[in-house]
Design brief:
This is Carbohydrate-binding domain-containing protein. By secondary structure, the protein is mainly beta. It contains three helices and 39 strands. The protein has a 26-stranded mixed sheet that branches. Strand 13 and strand 14 form a beta hairpin. It starts with a helix and ends with a helix.
């Protein structure tokens, strides 16, 4: 139980650092990779193994000013972008593109204030198992304002996009796109996106010529760090490298599978922090490392992690905060979520079903929108703190999982105010609020109703500039003080007499329906109506 506390505290610290998307005061210690091609980035000129980079397109590495972007000045037959997605030719021309055209390992260091790393091994690479590139991030700072700052166009694709054979378990070890975050380095990737551009030869117009009725995609790249093929991201031997991704749209994207095995990845994004986008096929797998995501919501929406297929968490630490003002989730997967290990903290405004796995998880649905930056702690029956976290976003739904979260009675605190809630109707331990569910249950209990969840698949958005409704709620007058570790809850914090399940007059939940005891069982645990505990004095009884 001590380890879960340390892990949650680590997640809190990591989340707090996301606002700067960096590690101020920390220095990068570049590593030496004798078997890799060394690419040193600079606004004054890029070098490859100590020599000026070639401009010859037949070279393994060459530079040019030919970035793919959404160009302004076109009509509706060009693509689906708006004026906000478009860029001028002058802005695009200012970017230096470092092209990598041959298989191999490339160690990147240095700074490009306007540039892109583009990996393209040719049109036949997708089916060539030898078409493999590893990018070692060895202390880089790359900024691109018109497109992804790092993009894999064409390398070997180890997976299949066949929905009929799709499975939750994929092996991406042979993938052609690989990223290694070198130990001791701090790496910054700041990128944009490319809105959908039509293949001009495929455009079909309506009879009156006023709209596009059919077209094929020529380009569309939503993430600041993007791969069209399956990709692996690893840390070094010690796992001390850091990758900070700042994105005005999505953060880390692949078009098929993504596997994260190590390193620390901090993502600040205007939309989804991580997205894998092949419907009912893509698998986002997290085996290790630390993944910390804050969706700032400039686009009006965004999940922390969004897989159009499956999300599998086997290890590591995941802290994912969704957009504060929309009905999005900290973790979201259209085909299902599996948690087999690791530590998970996901905050958002809706719950996406967890199909199961080998690890206990808890879903807290709050009675009102909570304000980001507040600290929540979970204490066991002995008064020991077993979890502490501070979500960065406003939220109503909190998902927590850890290998050390065991069956038993707990109390939940917001600062010094004790919280109460009601268990959804499901199997659970005796007494208190039984919230446990069998491991194979993919759906929450029928009566579980997370606040702010969108109706009929819609994702509600808060009007621009409007404060969240009932943000954070109001604590009751003179809330009970949180006991110190090892102490029990004060006598005055006993729940009022009454039922422990949902109910109340007219079917509305009342203070009498809530309990301050959260009883967890193995599997999924669901608690709703979470709010500050009303004592007898504050409730007027």
């Amino acid at each position: 139980m001590k380890r879960i506390c340390a892990l949650f505290l680590g997640l809190t610290v990591a989340a707090a650092s996301l606002s700067g998307c960096g590690a101020q005061g920390q220095e990068t210690t570049q590593q030496t990779f004798p078997d890799a091609t060394a690419i040193v980035l600079s606004d004054d000129g890029v070098t490859v193994d100590g020599e000026a980079a070639s401009t010859d397109e037949t070279a393994a590495v060459y530079t040019a000013h030919d970035i793919v972007y959404y160009e302004d000045g076109h009509d509706f037959t060009y693509g689906e972008g708006t004026a906000a997605d478009a860029h001028t030719a002058e802005e695009a021309e200012a970017h230096t593109v470092v092209h990598i055209t041959q298989p191999g390992t490339y160690a990147l260091s240095g700074t490009l204030s306007a540039g892109q790393i583009a990996v393209d091994l040719g049109e036949d690479a997708e089916e060539d198992p030898e078409a493999v590139v590893t990018l070692i991030l060895n202390g880089v700072d790359i900024t691109c304002t018109v497109a992804p700052a790092v993009i894999f166009y064409s390398v070997y694709e180890c997976g299949s996009d066949d929905e009929d054979t799709a499975t939750v378990a994929v092996d991406t070890s042979a993938a052609g796109a690989n990223v290694l975050i070198a130990d001791g380095t701090i790496n910054h990737v700041t990128g944009s996106y490319v809105a959908r551009i039509y293949d001009p030869d495929s455009v079909v117009l309506s009879e009156d010529g006023t709209e596009v009725t059919d077209s094929d995609k020529l380009h569309k790249y939503d993430g600041a760090f993007y791969s069209r093929m399956s990709m692996n991201v690893d840390g070094g031997e010690a796992g001390t490298g850091v990758l900070n991704i700042t994105a005005d749209n999505e953060g880390l994207d692949t078009e098929l599978h993504l596997t994260i095995n190590g390193g620390t990845i901090n993502i600040t994004s205007g939309n989804d922090g991580i997205n894998t986008n092949e419907d009912n096929v893509s698998v986002t797998t997290i085996n290790g490392g630390s993944v910390n995501i804050q969706v700032t919501g400039e686009t009006g929406e965004g999940d922390g992690i969004d897989s159009n297929g499956y999300l599998v968490i086997n290890g590591g630490a995941v802290n994912a905060a969704a957009c504060s003002s929309s009905g999005d989730a900290g973790i979201d997967a259209s085909a299902g979520i599996t948690i087999n290990g690791g530590t998970v903290l996901a905050s958002g405004n809706m719950y996406d079903p967890i199909d199961g796995g080998d690890q206990t998880y808890v879903v807290f649905s709050f009675a009102s929108r909570q304000t980001g930056g507040q600290t929540y702690t979970l204490q066991n029956a002995d008064g020991e703190t077993v979890g502490a976290w501070t979500p960065a976003n406003d939220f109503t739904c909190l998902v927590v999982s850890s290998p050390d979260l065991t069956a038993g009675d707990y109390t939940l605190w917001q600062g010094d105010a004790q919280l109460a809630g009601s268990a959804s109707d499901s199997a659970g331990g005796p007494g208190g609020m039984g919230g446990g569910r069998p491991m194979d249950g993919g759906e929450p209990p029928a009566d579980f109703d997370p606040q702010q969840a969108p109706a009929d698949g819609e994702r509600p958005r808060r009007p621009e500039g409007e404060a969240p409704e009932n943000a954070g709620g109001e604590a009751p007058a003179d809330p009970p003080e949180r006991p110190a570790d090892g102490e029990t809850a004060p006598d005055g914090a006993e729940p009022p007499a009454g039922g422990r399940g949902p109910g109340g007059e007219g079917g509305q939940m009342t203070a009498a329906d809530l309990s301050e005891t959260f009883t967890l069982a193995a599997g999924g645990n669901f608690f709703t109506g979470v709010s500050p505990l009303e004592t007898e004095e504050t409730s007027g009884t």
